[in-house]
């Protein structure tokens, strides 16, 4: 395979320098309203000597807010005196999507979490992914990527890691999830892991931790509190920030199979029959989809294919065929 060209992204920060630096990952993007212009992705580096490196991201999807809220805050507040090692913070990873308030980039429709390993000569989204793949991920020991449901899903607040073939790597990830202390902790299964940032980090042998902390295209007071406390807990757990982990009770959940997910088979108006966090029996109707084109038609019933609790639900009132309607989790011992 021919060698890849260098990334077009230039950081305005020095990842090896001690202290606090607020700067940019500058990505040239020449366009109608800005000849020779650039996308300026905010980055903060807080370093104090040798030690582990944490890479923290929010805004992988541009309409999810707990991560950016917690990370802009952390970048402002974290004192290098309390740090051993390096904390790299990119609070809005897909910055064009974040500025537009959309899941994917308005420039190229790129879904950051399906764009890995990216390309240095690809679209704007692929160039950002490539920079993470080849420049930032290799620096990191622990990688934390915040997600929430965005405009089309809502979740019970959970921190998560994946079951992995390397059990030592998996154990470290689940220990970091436990330290985060969200109300729920998830052993996660993906429906489509190809191209994900998660997969890129895990294949590099990194400890990768993520969240789903709510959704609906906004944030809640509780979920933002969970995010702020949780990320400090993970940094303390990793020995990068001093102080003790502030433990809170967490309920572990499992996603044992694809039966966790339910999808709409018709367009219509959704009626949730169960609220987030409530228990669900096998065969129970979790949602109904009402056809709206004419009166007199029965709603489509979405039935659970396993017992569990409702971990996620479709958010806005209208659904289209193929939309994810619900995700169930199964309560297990930690
Ligand atoms: Zn997301």
Distance between the termini: 44 Å
**How many extended strands?**
19
Helix content: 10-25%
Quaternary state of the chains: single chain
The main β sheet shows up as: 15 strands, mixed
Shape verdict: globular
Radius of gyration: 20 Å
Please give the count of helices. 6
Q: Order of SSEs, N→C?
A: EEEEHEHHEEEHEHEHEEEEEEEEE
Global mean pLDDT: 96
Question: Which ligands appear in the coordinates?
Answer: zinc ion
Taking pLDDT < 50 over at least 5 consecutive residues as the criterion, the unreliable ranges are none
- Beta-strand residue fraction: 25-35%
Helix/strand class: alpha+beta
Structure report:
This protein has a 15-stranded mixed beta sheet that branches. A 4-stranded antiparallel beta sheet has the order 16-15-13-18, with no helix packed on it. The model has no long low-confidence stretch (mean pLDDT 96). Helix 4 links the parallel strand 8 (158-162) and strand 9 (184-188). The N and C termini lie far apart (44 Å). Helix 1 (66-77) crosses helix 6 and helix 4 packs across helix 6. It is built from 6 helices and 19 strands. It is α+β, with helices and mostly antiparallel strands. The site of zinc ion (ZN) has 5 residues, from loops. Zinc ion (ZN) binds next to loops. InterPro entries: AstE_AspA_cat, DoeB, N-alpha-Ac-DABA-like, N-alpha-Ac-DABA_deacetylase. Its EC number is 3.5.1.125. It holds the Pfam family AstE_AspA_cat. Its cofactor is Zn(2+).
């Amino acid at each position: 395979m021919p060698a890849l060209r260098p990334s077009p992204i230039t950081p305005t920060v020095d990842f090896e320098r001690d202290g606090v630096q607020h700067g940019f990952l500058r990505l040239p993007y020449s366009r109608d309203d800005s000849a020779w212009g650039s996308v300026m992705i905010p980055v903060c580096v807080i370093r104090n000597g040798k030690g582990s490196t944490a890479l923290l991201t929010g805004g992988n999807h541009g309409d999810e807010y707990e991560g950016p809220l917690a990370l802009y805050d952390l970048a402002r507040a974290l004192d290098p005196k309390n740090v051993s090692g390096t904390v790299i913070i990119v609070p809005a990873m897909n910055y064009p999507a974040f500025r537009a308030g959309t899941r994917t980039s308005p420039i190229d429709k790129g879904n950051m979490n399906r764009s890995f390993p990216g390309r240095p000569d690809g679209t704007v989204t692929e160039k950002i992914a490539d920079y993470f793949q080849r420049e930032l991920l290799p620096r990191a020991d622990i990688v934390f990527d915040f997600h929430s449901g965005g405009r089309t899903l809502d979740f019970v607040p959970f921190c998560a890691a994946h079951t992995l073939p390397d059990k030592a790597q998996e154990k470290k990830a689940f220990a970091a999830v436990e330290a985060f202390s969200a109300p729920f902790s998830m052993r996660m299964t993906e429906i489509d892991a190809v191209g994900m940032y998660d997969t890129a980090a895990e294949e590099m042998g990194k400890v990768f931790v993520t969240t789903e902390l709510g959704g609906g295209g906004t944030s809640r007071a509780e979920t933002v509190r969970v995010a702020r406390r949780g990320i400090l807990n993970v940094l303390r757990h990793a020995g990068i920030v001093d102080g003790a982990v502030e433990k809170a009770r967490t309920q572990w959940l499992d996603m044992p199979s694809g039966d966790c997910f339910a999808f709409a088979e018709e367009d219509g108006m959704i009626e949730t029959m169960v609220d987030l966090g409530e228990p669900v029996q096998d065969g129970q109707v979790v949602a109904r989809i009402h056809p709206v084109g004419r009166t007199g038609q029965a709603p489509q019933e979405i039935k659970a294919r396993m017992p569990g609790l409702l971990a996620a639900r479709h958010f806005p009132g209208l659904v289209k065929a193929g939309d994810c309607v619900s995700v169930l989790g199964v309560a297990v011992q930690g």
